Amino acid sequence: MRVRLRAAGDDAKGDAEGDVLPASPEGDCQDGRCGLIKRPGDLYEVLAFHLDRVLGLNRSLPAVARRFSSRLLPYSYTDGALRPIIWWAPDLQHLQDANNDQNSCALGWLQYQEMLQPHRPMPVARDAPCSSIPRSEWSRLALFDFLLQVHDRLDRYCCGFQPDPSEPCVEEMLHEKCRNPAELVLVHILVRRSAPSRLVFIDNAGRPQHPEEKLNFRLLQGIGSFPAVAVARLRSGRLQSLLLQSLRLDRELWESQGGAEGLRPLLQTIDRRAQILLRHIQEHNLTVFEDSPR
What we know:
Blueprint: E1 2-5, H1 14-17, E2 20-22, E3 34-37, H2 44-54, E4 63-66, E5 83-87, H3 109-115, H4 135-148, H5 168-171, E6 190-192, E7 195-200, E8 225-227, H6 228-235, H7 239-247, H8 251-256, H9 259-283, E9 287-289
Parallel strand pairs: 8-9
Antiparallel strand pairs: 1-2, 1-3, 3-5, 4-5, 6-7
Helix pairs in contact: 2-7, 4-9, 7-9
Protein backbone atom coordinates (compact mmCIF):
# COMPACT_ATOMS: atom_id res chain seq x y z
CA MET A 1 0.00 0.00 0.00
CA ARG A 2 1.30 3.43 -0.93
CA VAL A 3 0.92 5.96 1.84
CA ARG A 4 1.70 9.61 2.35
CA LEU A 5 4.14 10.30 5.17
CA ARG A 6 3.51 13.15 7.56
CA ALA A 7 6.03 14.55 9.99
CA ALA A 8 4.90 14.84 13.62
CA GLY A 9 3.46 18.28 14.20
CA ASP A 10 2.52 18.93 10.56
CA ASP A 11 -1.00 19.66 11.77
CA ALA A 12 -3.29 19.04 14.70
CA LYS A 13 -4.67 15.83 13.23
CA GLY A 14 -1.26 14.17 13.22
CA ASP A 15 -1.47 12.86 16.80
CA ALA A 16 -4.93 11.38 16.30
CA GLU A 17 -4.38 9.75 12.95
CA GLY A 18 -0.75 8.69 13.12
CA ASP A 19 1.97 9.60 10.69
CA VAL A 20 0.71 7.94 7.49
CA LEU A 21 -2.25 8.56 5.19
CA PRO A 22 -3.38 6.43 2.23
CA ALA A 23 -2.15 8.15 -0.93
CA SER A 24 -4.34 8.66 -3.98
CA PRO A 25 -2.94 7.44 -7.29
CA GLU A 26 -2.51 10.94 -8.73
CA GLY A 27 -0.66 13.88 -7.38
CA ASP A 28 -0.13 13.12 -3.71
CA CYS A 29 3.43 11.85 -3.95
CA GLN A 30 5.19 14.26 -6.27
CA ASP A 31 6.90 16.02 -3.36
CA GLY A 32 8.71 12.83 -2.35
CA ARG A 33 6.83 12.33 0.93
CA CYS A 34 5.33 8.92 0.24
CA GLY A 35 6.28 5.37 1.06
CA LEU A 36 5.24 1.87 0.09
CA ILE A 37 4.23 -0.40 2.98
CA LYS A 38 5.03 -3.98 2.03
CA ARG A 39 4.29 -7.41 3.47
CA PRO A 40 5.92 -8.65 6.69
CA GLY A 41 7.58 -11.33 4.57
CA ASP A 42 9.44 -8.60 2.68
CA LEU A 43 11.30 -7.48 5.80
CA TYR A 44 14.65 -8.51 4.30
CA GLU A 45 14.31 -5.50 2.00
CA VAL A 46 15.51 -3.44 4.96
CA LEU A 47 18.62 -5.58 5.28
CA ALA A 48 19.14 -5.22 1.52
CA PHE A 49 19.06 -1.42 1.86
CA HIS A 50 21.75 -1.53 4.55
CA LEU A 51 23.88 -3.91 2.46
CA ASP A 52 23.57 -1.52 -0.48
CA ARG A 53 24.84 1.38 1.63
CA VAL A 54 27.63 -0.60 3.34
CA LEU A 55 28.96 -1.65 -0.08
CA GLY A 56 28.84 1.90 -1.39
CA LEU A 57 26.42 1.05 -4.21
CA ASN A 58 23.71 3.57 -3.28
CA ARG A 59 21.15 2.22 -5.73
CA SER A 60 18.40 0.98 -3.35
CA LEU A 61 15.57 3.19 -2.16
CA PRO A 62 15.63 3.94 1.60
CA ALA A 63 13.83 1.28 3.65
CA VAL A 64 12.97 0.99 7.35
CA ALA A 65 11.01 -1.49 9.47
CA ARG A 66 8.00 -0.09 11.32
CA ARG A 67 4.75 -1.02 13.03
CA PHE A 68 1.74 1.06 12.00
CA SER A 69 -1.15 2.30 14.09
CA SER A 70 -2.98 4.85 11.94
CA ARG A 71 -6.74 4.27 12.10
CA LEU A 72 -6.90 5.24 8.41
CA LEU A 73 -5.09 2.06 7.41
CA PRO A 74 -6.79 -1.34 7.03
CA TYR A 75 -6.58 -3.53 10.13
CA SER A 76 -4.19 -5.95 8.42
CA TYR A 77 -1.64 -3.12 8.38
CA THR A 78 -2.12 -2.19 12.03
CA ASP A 79 -2.17 -5.63 13.69
CA GLY A 80 1.25 -5.11 15.27
CA ALA A 81 3.27 -6.97 12.62
CA LEU A 82 6.55 -5.37 11.63
CA ARG A 83 6.55 -4.33 7.98
CA PRO A 84 9.07 -2.67 5.69
CA ILE A 85 8.23 0.73 4.32
CA ILE A 86 10.16 1.82 1.24
CA TRP A 87 10.55 5.41 0.10
CA TRP A 88 8.45 6.10 -2.99
CA ALA A 89 10.62 7.80 -5.62
CA PRO A 90 8.22 10.10 -7.50
CA ASP A 91 10.24 10.18 -10.71
CA LEU A 92 10.73 6.47 -11.39
CA GLN A 93 10.40 6.00 -15.12
CA HIS A 94 7.86 3.38 -16.25
CA LEU A 95 7.06 2.09 -19.71
CA GLN A 96 3.62 3.01 -20.99
CA ASP A 97 2.92 -0.64 -21.84
CA ALA A 98 0.47 -1.90 -19.19
CA ASN A 99 1.94 -5.40 -19.50
CA ASN A 100 5.49 -4.18 -18.93
CA ASP A 101 5.17 -1.15 -16.65
CA GLN A 102 7.66 -2.48 -14.08
CA ASN A 103 10.52 -1.55 -16.41
CA SER A 104 11.99 1.70 -17.61
CA CYS A 105 13.14 -0.05 -20.78
CA ALA A 106 12.35 -3.39 -22.38
CA LEU A 107 15.41 -5.62 -22.49
CA GLY A 108 15.75 -9.27 -23.44
CA TRP A 109 18.40 -11.62 -22.05
CA LEU A 110 20.26 -11.90 -25.37
CA GLN A 111 20.28 -8.11 -25.83
CA TYR A 112 21.55 -7.73 -22.28
CA GLN A 113 24.39 -10.20 -22.83
CA GLU A 114 25.32 -8.41 -26.05
CA MET A 115 25.46 -5.08 -24.22
CA LEU A 116 27.92 -6.55 -21.72
CA GLN A 117 30.47 -7.53 -24.37
CA PRO A 118 33.67 -5.63 -23.42
CA HIS A 119 34.81 -4.73 -26.94
CA ARG A 120 31.43 -3.74 -28.24
CA PRO A 121 30.54 -0.03 -28.09
CA MET A 122 27.46 0.72 -26.07
CA PRO A 123 24.46 1.68 -28.25
CA VAL A 124 24.01 5.39 -28.66
CA ALA A 125 20.72 5.49 -30.50
CA ARG A 126 18.01 6.88 -28.30
CA ASP A 127 15.61 4.11 -29.22
CA ALA A 128 18.07 1.33 -28.30
CA PRO A 129 16.83 -0.50 -25.18
CA CYS A 130 18.44 0.80 -21.99
CA SER A 131 21.05 2.71 -24.01
CA SER A 132 21.54 5.26 -21.22
CA ILE A 133 22.70 2.64 -18.70
CA PRO A 134 26.48 1.99 -18.66
CA ARG A 135 28.06 -1.42 -18.10
CA SER A 136 29.20 -0.40 -14.62
CA GLU A 137 25.56 -0.26 -13.50
CA TRP A 138 24.96 -3.86 -14.54
CA SER A 139 28.07 -4.86 -12.57
CA ARG A 140 26.67 -3.25 -9.43
CA LEU A 141 23.33 -4.96 -9.98
CA ALA A 142 24.89 -8.39 -10.54
CA LEU A 143 27.04 -8.16 -7.40
CA PHE A 144 24.09 -7.04 -5.28
CA ASP A 145 21.69 -9.64 -6.65
CA PHE A 146 24.19 -12.46 -6.21
CA LEU A 147 24.80 -11.64 -2.53
CA LEU A 148 21.06 -11.53 -1.84
CA GLN A 149 20.10 -14.14 -4.46
CA VAL A 150 17.55 -11.82 -6.04
CA HIS A 151 16.49 -13.76 -9.14
CA ASP A 152 13.53 -11.70 -10.28
CA ARG A 153 15.46 -9.08 -12.24
CA LEU A 154 18.04 -11.02 -14.24
CA ASP A 155 16.69 -14.59 -14.04
CA ARG A 156 13.00 -14.67 -13.24
CA TYR A 157 12.85 -17.99 -15.11
CA CYS A 158 15.26 -19.74 -12.67
CA CYS A 159 17.50 -20.79 -15.55
CA GLY A 160 20.60 -20.58 -13.36
CA PHE A 161 19.64 -23.33 -10.89
CA GLN A 162 17.27 -26.27 -10.56
CA PRO A 163 14.14 -24.82 -8.93
CA ASP A 164 11.87 -26.72 -6.56
CA PRO A 165 8.38 -27.53 -7.92
CA SER A 166 6.90 -24.96 -5.52
CA GLU A 167 8.91 -22.09 -7.04
CA PRO A 168 6.75 -19.46 -8.80
CA CYS A 169 8.93 -19.82 -11.90
CA VAL A 170 7.84 -23.48 -12.10
CA GLU A 171 4.20 -22.96 -11.13
CA GLU A 172 3.88 -20.17 -13.71
CA MET A 173 5.62 -22.33 -16.33
CA LEU A 174 8.38 -19.78 -16.80
CA HIS A 175 11.19 -22.26 -16.27
CA GLU A 176 10.23 -24.07 -19.47
CA LYS A 177 11.27 -20.99 -21.47
CA CYS A 178 14.91 -21.50 -20.49
CA ARG A 179 15.21 -23.71 -23.58
CA ASN A 180 14.76 -20.65 -25.77
CA PRO A 181 16.92 -17.71 -24.59
CA ALA A 182 15.31 -15.43 -27.17
CA GLU A 183 12.10 -15.49 -25.08
CA LEU A 184 13.77 -14.43 -21.82
CA VAL A 185 13.35 -10.85 -20.63
CA LEU A 186 14.67 -8.83 -17.71
CA VAL A 187 12.22 -7.24 -15.24
CA HIS A 188 12.36 -4.48 -12.63
CA ILE A 189 14.98 -2.65 -14.68
CA LEU A 190 14.26 0.87 -13.49
CA VAL A 191 15.85 4.31 -13.58
CA ARG A 192 14.72 7.72 -12.38
CA ARG A 193 13.97 10.50 -14.82
CA SER A 194 16.38 12.68 -12.87
CA ALA A 195 19.21 10.12 -13.28
CA PRO A 196 18.56 7.96 -16.37
CA SER A 197 22.04 6.41 -16.31
CA ARG A 198 21.70 4.99 -12.76
CA LEU A 199 19.71 1.85 -12.03
CA VAL A 200 17.30 1.82 -9.11
CA PHE A 201 17.13 -1.47 -7.20
CA ILE A 202 13.60 -2.38 -6.02
CA ASP A 203 12.03 -5.55 -4.59
CA ASN A 204 15.30 -6.57 -2.98
CA ALA A 205 14.21 -9.07 -0.32
CA GLY A 206 16.00 -11.86 -2.18
CA ARG A 207 16.38 -15.36 -0.76
CA PRO A 208 18.19 -15.50 2.55
CA GLN A 209 17.49 -19.25 2.86
CA HIS A 210 18.54 -20.17 -0.68
CA PRO A 211 20.87 -23.19 -0.37
CA GLU A 212 24.55 -22.63 -1.06
CA GLU A 213 24.74 -25.57 -3.47
CA LYS A 214 22.09 -23.88 -5.64
CA LEU A 215 23.57 -20.39 -5.81
CA ASN A 216 22.56 -18.74 -9.07
CA PHE A 217 25.76 -17.89 -10.96
CA ARG A 218 23.73 -16.93 -14.02
CA LEU A 219 23.27 -13.58 -12.27
CA LEU A 220 27.01 -12.97 -12.90
CA GLN A 221 27.02 -14.09 -16.54
CA GLY A 222 28.68 -11.60 -18.86
CA ILE A 223 30.00 -9.39 -16.06
CA GLY A 224 33.72 -8.72 -16.49
CA SER A 225 34.41 -6.23 -13.71
CA PHE A 226 33.01 -5.09 -10.37
CA PRO A 227 33.06 -1.83 -8.37
CA ALA A 228 36.33 -1.51 -6.46
CA VAL A 229 34.79 -0.07 -3.28
CA ALA A 230 32.28 -2.89 -2.95
CA VAL A 231 34.90 -5.58 -3.63
CA ALA A 232 37.23 -4.01 -1.07
CA ARG A 233 34.46 -4.15 1.56
CA LEU A 234 33.88 -7.83 0.76
CA ARG A 235 37.60 -8.54 1.09
CA SER A 236 38.04 -6.55 4.28
CA GLY A 237 36.76 -9.27 6.63
CA ARG A 238 34.55 -6.62 8.22
CA LEU A 239 31.36 -7.08 6.23
CA GLN A 240 29.39 -8.53 9.15
CA SER A 241 30.52 -5.88 11.62
CA LEU A 242 29.80 -3.08 9.15
CA LEU A 243 26.30 -4.45 8.56
CA LEU A 244 25.65 -4.78 12.29
CA GLN A 245 26.79 -1.20 12.82
CA SER A 246 24.40 -0.01 10.11
CA LEU A 247 21.43 -2.21 11.09
CA ARG A 248 21.63 -1.04 14.70
CA LEU A 249 20.31 2.32 13.50
CA ASP A 250 16.92 0.77 12.71
CA ARG A 251 15.85 0.04 16.28
CA GLU A 252 12.58 -1.66 15.36
CA LEU A 253 14.28 -4.13 13.05
CA TRP A 254 17.20 -4.63 15.44
CA GLU A 255 15.02 -5.49 18.42
CA SER A 256 12.59 -7.64 16.43
CA GLN A 257 15.43 -9.82 15.16
CA GLY A 258 17.07 -10.25 18.57
CA GLY A 259 19.92 -7.80 18.02
CA ALA A 260 23.36 -8.91 16.89
CA GLU A 261 22.91 -12.55 17.93
CA GLY A 262 19.62 -12.91 16.09
CA LEU A 263 20.95 -11.28 12.92
CA ARG A 264 24.28 -13.09 12.86
CA PRO A 265 23.15 -16.27 11.00
CA LEU A 266 21.73 -14.14 8.20
CA LEU A 267 24.86 -12.00 7.98
CA GLN A 268 27.04 -15.12 7.97
CA THR A 269 25.09 -16.36 4.95
CA ILE A 270 25.75 -13.11 3.09
CA ASP A 271 29.41 -13.21 4.12
CA ARG A 272 29.79 -16.77 2.80
CA ARG A 273 28.24 -15.71 -0.51
CA ALA A 274 30.69 -12.79 -0.57
CA GLN A 275 33.63 -15.20 -0.24
CA ILE A 276 32.21 -17.34 -3.05
CA LEU A 277 31.87 -14.24 -5.22
CA LEU A 278 35.48 -13.24 -4.48
CA ARG A 279 36.64 -16.72 -5.53
CA HIS A 280 34.61 -16.35 -8.73
CA ILE A 281 36.33 -13.02 -9.45
CA GLN A 282 39.77 -14.54 -8.85
CA GLU A 283 39.20 -17.77 -10.78
CA HIS A 284 37.89 -15.93 -13.83
CA ASN A 285 40.52 -13.14 -13.69
CA LEU A 286 37.85 -10.47 -13.45
CA THR A 287 38.79 -6.87 -12.75
CA VAL A 288 37.55 -4.01 -10.59
CA PHE A 289 36.79 -0.45 -11.60
CA GLU A 290 36.91 2.81 -9.69
CA ASP A 291 33.83 4.97 -9.48
CA SER A 292 34.15 8.16 -11.48
CA PRO A 293 33.97 11.38 -9.43
CA ARG A 294 30.50 12.89 -9.16
